[in-house]
Structure formats: structure tokens, C-alpha cells
């Protein structure tokens, strides 16, 4: 109803606030998705920081309950929920989550304590979102060293979280490099487009500037429509 302009988005946010004690992954996934859409829309307004603060408020209680480490008797959905919640808090700039993500990332890179598979995406996205050129370089090094395609894809999907314009360009150039399989280029560009307002503008310009190469690469396939959609 809010999307159709029938009710105020404020009403949606009030409903969302009622879910702070919700334990179910599917519900949180839906909340996260809708807040992501709102964040994208509000990134063009003065309310972007307010929506980030709202995300922190709604997701902090469940984040504190779940913690960073698996508990005895947890199911698969709890692990998924932990990754979702920590990623959301990290991207929104929740201080404690950012600090812990940086600490764990450093230990992971140094080989002291390797991150579990379900925590890698939230940690990667958090350190990149609030990172600099050395963070991006470290991530690209991890990509190069990864011996499993699953890990390479995981890194490719989050690179677009980086915020600085010159680093966004570096990620887009990387997308068309030989380091990335042609079928995975779309994921990198899509990650940039969904990462920030600056990323969306840069990805759109990049698509137009490299249209001939991209079209020739994917013509007639579903990837070209996916690329345009993202």
C-alpha cells in the first residue's frame, strides 16, 4: 500500500518496529529487503542517515541476542539469520559490529582465525563499506588467492560496497578484467549499482561507456537483461 502511495511509509516503519523480538529468519529477510529498497530511495534525499539509524535501532536487539558465534543446538536458519543481521548492522555503521568485523577480518587475513563461510559476506561487506584503498587491495588479494570459485564469487558480490568514487571505478574496471569469469562480471557491476548512490551512477555510466563490449559478450542471453535490470 505504501509503494502504491495509498498509505504513508511512516506507517510501514511503525509496523517494522513491532518486529524487534521476532526470531524468524524469513521475516527478517523480508524486513531487510524492504528496508534496502527504502534505503535506496532515500539515498537521494536528506533522510538517508535517518534510515540508517532506524536500521541500527531495529536490528541491534536481534544482533545482540544472536552474537557472533554459533550456539549449541542452533539450526541452519539461525546461521543465515546471524549473517543477515550482522551484515545489515555493519553496513548501517553500527559501531560495535564494525569494530568486531574489522578485528575478525584482520585475523582472517593474517591466517590466525579463518572466518566461517556464513560470516564471510557480512564481514567483507562491513569492512569494505567503511574501508579505504588498502581494504580493497586486501580483498582483491583474497580473491586472487582463493582456490574455490564459491569464495571468488562471494568476494565479487560484495566489492561494490566500497564508497569512494575512485575505488568504485577500480572495482568496475576489475569487473571486465580476466580475473573475473565473463558470467560473473554482472555480479560485480550489480554489486556496485546496489552498493551506494555514487555506485549506481558510476555503474550506469560504466554500462553505457562499455555497452558494445558488454552487449557482444552477452547478446541473446539472460545475463544482458539481468545486467540492465541491476
From TrEMBL:
Keywords, ordered alphabetically: Aminopeptidase, Hydrolase, Protease
InterPro entries hit by this protein: ERAP1-like_C_dom, Peptidase_M1_aminopeptidases
Location of the ERAP1-like C-terminal domain: 2-229
The keyword Transferase is annotated on this UniProt entry: no
Molecular function terms, GO-annotated: metalloaminopeptidase activity; peptide binding; zinc ion binding
Gene Ontology annotations of biological process type: peptide catabolic process; proteolysis
A cellular component term, taken from the record's GO annotations: extracellular space
Pfam families: ERAP1_C
Family statement drawn from the similarity comment of this UniProt entry: Belongs to the peptidase M1 family.
UniProt protein name: PSA aminopeptidase
Naturally occurring in which organism (per UniProt): Sitta europaea (Eurasian nuthatch)
Origin organism lineage: Eukaryota, Metazoa, Chordata, Craniata, Vertebrata
Amino acid at each position: 500500500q505504501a509503494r502504491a502511495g495509498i498509505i504513508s511509509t511512516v506507517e510501514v516503519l511503525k509496523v517494522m518496529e513491532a518486529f524487534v523480538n521476532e526470531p524468524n529468519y524469513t521475516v527478517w529477510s523480508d524486513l531487510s529487503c524492504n528496508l534496502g529498497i527504502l534505503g535506496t530511495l532515500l539515498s537521494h534525499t536528506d533522510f538517508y542517515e535517518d534510515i540508517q539509524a532506524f536500521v541500527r535501532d531495529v536490528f541491534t536487539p536481534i544482533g545482540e541476542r544472536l552474537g557472533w558465534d554459533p550456539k549449541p543446538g542452533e539450526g541452519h536458519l539461525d546461521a543465515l539469520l546471524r549473517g543477515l543481521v550482522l551484515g545489515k548492522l555493519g553496513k548501517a555503521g553500527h559501531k560495535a559490529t564494525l569494530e568486531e568485523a574489522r578485528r575478525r577480518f584482520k585475523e582472517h587475513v593474517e591466517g590466525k582465525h579463518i572466518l566461517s563461510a556464513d560470516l564471510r559476506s557480512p564481514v567483507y561487506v562491513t569492512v569494505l563499506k567503511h574501508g579505504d584503498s588498502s581494504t580493497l587491495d586486501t580483498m582483491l588479494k583474497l580473491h586472487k588467492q582463493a582456490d574455490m570459485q564459491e569464495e571468488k564469487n562471494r568476494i565479487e558480490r560484495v566489492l561494490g560496497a566500497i564508497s569512494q568514487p575512485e575505488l568504485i571505478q577500480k572495482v568496475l574496471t576489475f569487473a571486465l578484467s580476466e580475473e573475473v569469469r565473463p558470467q560473473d562480471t554482472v555480479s560485480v557491476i550489480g554489486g556496485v549499482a546496489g552498493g551506494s548512490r555514487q555506485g549506481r551512477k558510476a555503474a550506469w555510466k560504466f554500462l553505457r561507456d562499455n555497452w558494445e563490449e558488454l552487449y557482444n559478450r552477452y547478446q541473446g542471453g539472460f545475463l544482458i537483461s539481468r545486467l540492465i535490470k541491476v
